[in-house]
Amino acid sequence: MAAIDPGTLMWARACELIDRAERLHRQFFQPRAVPVRDLCWEPPVDVIETDSDFLISVALPGVDSNAVKVTVENGTVMVTGFRRTNTLPRSSRIHRLEIPYGRFERRITFPASSLELAQAEFADGCLMLKFTKQPFTEEQINV
């Protein structure tokens, strides 16, 4: 049985940690096609469509509901806000930081349809939005 070189073992572990950090970075800090004013992170969302509605759930644990803004324009829903960092005791040491803080922005674009916000609820760290699909008018179809 061959002996395991401690240097090789440490190098393999370091590579694993770098791979994990890169996966987390891609998960929370994805490049954007539209430029934004400041650096920001994107919260994960679930989007579900029914015959009459779009249901959106945005995961925002630790975010104050007053720090969240929802806008709808041209078939795009934009959820923006800010998650404050926790205050750290002066003598503390950070071992791991995986939770994104600061400004966040998430754009969700829908297929050609007119949306109307029917319900918004912030509970258990999730923002739940219900958009009712509106039928197109004659003017919208001819444009």
From TrEMBL:
Transmembrane segments annotated in the record for this chain: none
Similarity remark: Belongs to the small heat shock protein (HSP20) family.
Protein name as it appears in the record: SHSP domain-containing protein
InterPro entries, A to Z: A-crystallin/Hsp20_dom, HSP20-like_chaperone, Small_HSP
Domain SHSP as annotated: residue spans: 36-143
